[in-house]
Amino acid sequence: MRWRRFARSLRRLAARRNLWLLAAVAGLALGGCAVRPVTPELAKYEPDGGYRWNTRIALPENDPETLLILTFSGGGTRAAAFSYGVLEELRRTTAPSPRGERPVLAEVDVITGTSGGSFTALAYALYGERLFEDYDRTFLKRDVEGDLLRRLFDPLTWPRVLSQGFGRSELAEEYYDEILFHRATFADLAGKPTPTAIVGATDVSTGTRFDFSQLEFDVICGDLGKFRLSRAAAASSAVPIVLSPVTLDNRGGSCGYSPPGWVADTLDRPDPLPAGNRLLLRLREMERLRDGAARPYLHLVDGGLSDNLALFGPVEMLQELMTSPRYRAAAGVDRVRRVAVVIVNARSAPRFDWDKVPYGPGAFGLLAQSISVPINHYSTEAIAALQDLVTKWQLQARLDADAKAGDALPPVEFSIVDVSFERVADPALREYLQTLPTTLALPDEAVDRVRAAAAQVLRESPVFTRFVASLSQCRQGGDGKCR
């Protein structure tokens, strides 16, 4: 009796093995030679064409005197939920505007994002108000990590994942497209009454940031309009080793690109900018990409490695506005008198306690720490760069006013709003948030607590409160309404 049961068990096991073997064989037959998506080619350079933020900084329907920028950090679902909580609070907060009383969220002009924050940035730019209907269900409270692992270990996917050029990030891209972006491209964002969303990745060859903006795609002669949002999100969140790099084709030199005039204002200044100026370094990096023959491919990984706060882009944009009158005119921000940057920082602070034991961390611990140390360094540097820029702007504006310069830099009231776990008042809640893992799967309760914490920190921020109050100080017409 016992032997018969054992024999039946063996037959069932054999049948199960045959099913897996059959699935693997079928995968080989169906999968063929999978290849990575080719970067859409830009046939002819058009300085004002495509999805870019240098000619679309302030939205036309927004208060022309206000430039409101949000930056969404990396950090997996934790960061996506934290940034979503900020959007929710901005939506609940109202203020006067040229179009009457409306949510402060409607005044947002630009959102930058990286890694986990890139999902929320792109999704809001795509869906606008519709995002608040089901984003928590479709993405935040979905076991994204588990779903990706199940697909990775499905034998039917093995031939594709093992094919040259098609890797784990391409698998993730397909999944993000299925659950969130639904084949949308950057062309689908153009013309929408939503903020311009710019997400970034890291070039593994140089360690520098690469933004998904037509401004950068011009240099590599790529057409961002035909590029899928899911692929940009996959590149921005491609954690090294866990996910494969996302590769772009660099056809620089084939589309007739030449740098815009305001770039020349910076590169060819009679009084050169300091060698360490981030804007100057950035423009020189982009110039090197113009030779597509020398660097025909760009391999991109998680944007958090080069800019985890997604803040360097806005800093460089503000530096260019300060440097170039032509850029101020092209961007349509001559009337701006207040700039607010809301930095949404979901940085974790796990406790390792390595210095309390006689043995060091293991391989995975060392890998995590080797990544987090430069990320934290760059985050600190980005905030310092923004604060330094504000000081220089205000000084230059005063000097221009005293000298009555023709292209005077306008005086601007800056508001830097820090929305981070460090700003959570409750010590127990703060520790809970800071020790949440950087994964693409969190319990529903954790997602809700992260969202609520973001809303509370923003709501209780004195800087944000003053900024909202300043929105009511608009110019009024004869009818008493804001103009």
Write a concise keyword list for the protein shown above.
single chain, 483 residues, alpha/beta, two-stranded antiparallel ribbon, 11% strand, disordered N terminus, disordered C terminus
H and E string = HEHEEEHHHHHEEHHEHHEHHHEHEHHH
- The rough form would be described as globular
Whole-number average pLDDT? 84
Estimated radius of gyration: 24 Å
The helix/strand class is alpha/beta
Sheet with the most strands, sense and barrel status: 8 strands, mixed
Contiguous helical run count: 18
Helix content: 40-55%
Q: What's the end-to-end separation, in Å?
A: 90 Å
Question: What is the count of β-strands?
Answer: 10
| Spans where pLDDT lies below 50 across 5 or more residues | 1-32, 475-483
Q: Which strand-content bin applies to the residues?
A: 5-15%
